[in-house]
Amino acid sequence: MAAELVLALTKGRILDDELSLLSRIGIEPVDDPRTSRKLVFETNNTNIRIMVLRGTDVATYVEHGIADVGMSGKDVLLEHGGDGFYEPLDLGLGRCRLMVAKLVKEGELPTRLRIATKFTNTAKRYYAERGIQVDIIKLYGAMELAPVTGLAHRIVDIVETGNTLKANGLEAVELIEEISTRLIVNTTAYKTKNEQVRSLVDSLESIL
Ligand code: PRP
């Protein structure tokens, strides 16, 4: 009998797209994860189960081998760090950019800038690689408010249409990374469940 494969999906607005990718390769959850309060779902394939998690937790579950395969945004993966899993496929969902943004009308700046972001590890790495000393301020939302109120000089945040920046008198100035949803695979599962993992990766690749 084939070993069981556990897939971790990211809940929220990207879930629809993730499920439709799976549907196109013939994997259908028995209950609808968009309406059910369950967190683990059987599928029409008895060897495949689906877990629906917060984006930030997908990499953790895959890294620890609880899930074999995951779908997670590159922004979250960059922030998490990449031990314990491979990233074989760009699924092309949720395309956006991780950028540095600033006030369009900026006053005088100190030599050491304050950077507000929820992506603190990524921001630290970005500035350290450039030899620029900054102070990072962790925020959990509404990043755009930080430069407007003087909490920070710059923000590191996701830009999709740019409307949120524009509406708050900000502009994007530096690209940190092109973001999209990636398929990740636990390194051990890649070996021990190679046949099923390869078949899943190949099927997804063929429809992208
Ligand atoms: C993201 C991001 C920006 C906005 C950018 O927030 O933090 O606020 O989207 O999109 P735009 O360029 O199309 O205006 P999101 O709505 O994902 O909420 P979050 O704060 O929970 O990340």
Brief summary of the model shown:
The chain folds into two domains: 5-94 and 180-207, Periplasmic binding protein-like II (D-Maltodextrin-Binding Protein, domain 2); 96-178, 3-Layer(aba) Sandwich (D-Maltodextrin-Binding Protein, domain 2), CATH 3.40.190.10. Helices cover 32% and strands 32% of the residues. It contains eight helices and eleven strands.
Textual characterization of the structure:
The protein has 208 residues and is of the alpha/beta class. The strands form 2 sheets. A 6-stranded mixed β-sheet has the order 2-3-1-4-11-5, sandwiched between helices. It folds into 2 domains: 5-94 and 180-207, D-Maltodextrin-Binding Protein, domain 2 (3-Layer(aba) Sandwich); 96-178, D-Maltodextrin-Binding Protein, domain 2 (3-Layer(aba) Sandwich), CATH 3.40.190. 32% of the residues lie in helices and 32% in strands. The two termini are 29 Å apart. The chain has 8 helices and 11 strands. 1-O-pyrophosphono-5-O-phosphono-alpha-D-ribofuranose is lined by residues 141, 143, 157-164.
